Amino acid sequence: MENSKLLIQLDEVDNVMLASRSLNAGEMVCIAGRQIQLSQDLRLGFKIANRDISKGDKIVKCGVPIGSATCDISLGELIHLHNLESDYVPTYTIQNQDQYGK
């Protein structure tokens, strides 16, 4: 598959891209004109940072903020529950599993 089709940016203001298929750690992808080696597996539809994101910055997907970064996120890093907190609904993580009875 052509490298430019591995990751999709849905809106020009998005700071994330989505995997168009499952990608394996070690694969090379092009983000913002730079070749980046993935440090971990990325499943279909998962988000990856298309620029450096600072702790507290909004994560923007489809032109809409979906949450806030809970830590600094580097270009090419997976964005998921370990570094993203929803601004709209509770985020269920291992850190707060007792709070939600899991």
Describe the protein.
- By secondary structure, the chain is an all-beta fold.
- The protein is 0% helix and 31% strand.
- The chain is built from no helices and nine strands.
- The strands form three sheets. The protein has a four-stranded antiparallel β-sheet with strand order 1-2-5-8, with no helix packed on it. A three-stranded antiparallel β-sheet has the order 6-7-9, with no helix packed on it. A two-stranded antiparallel ribbon has the order 3-4.
- 19% of the residues are buried.
Instruction: Name the shape in a single word.
Output: globular
Q: What is the count of DSSP helices, taking H or I runs of 4+ residues?
A: 0
Report the order of strands and helices: EEEEEEEEE
Quickly give the structural class.
mainly beta
As a whole number of angstroms, the C-alpha radius of gyration is 14 Å
Domain count: 1
CATH class: Mainly Beta
Number of strands: 9
Low-confidence segments, given as residue ranges, are none
The profile of the biggest β sheet is: 4 strands, antiparallel
What percentage of the residues does DSSP assign to strands (E)? 25-35%
What is the topological layout?
Layout: E1 7-8, E2 16-19, E3 28-31, E4 34-37, E5 47-49, E6 58-61, E7 64-69, E8 78-79, E9 84-86
Name its key features.
102 residues; mainly beta; Archaeosine Trna-guanine Transglycosylase, Chain: A, domain 4; four-stranded antiparallel sheet
Give a short summary of the structure.
Helix content is 0%, strand content 31%. The protein is mainly beta and 102 residues long.
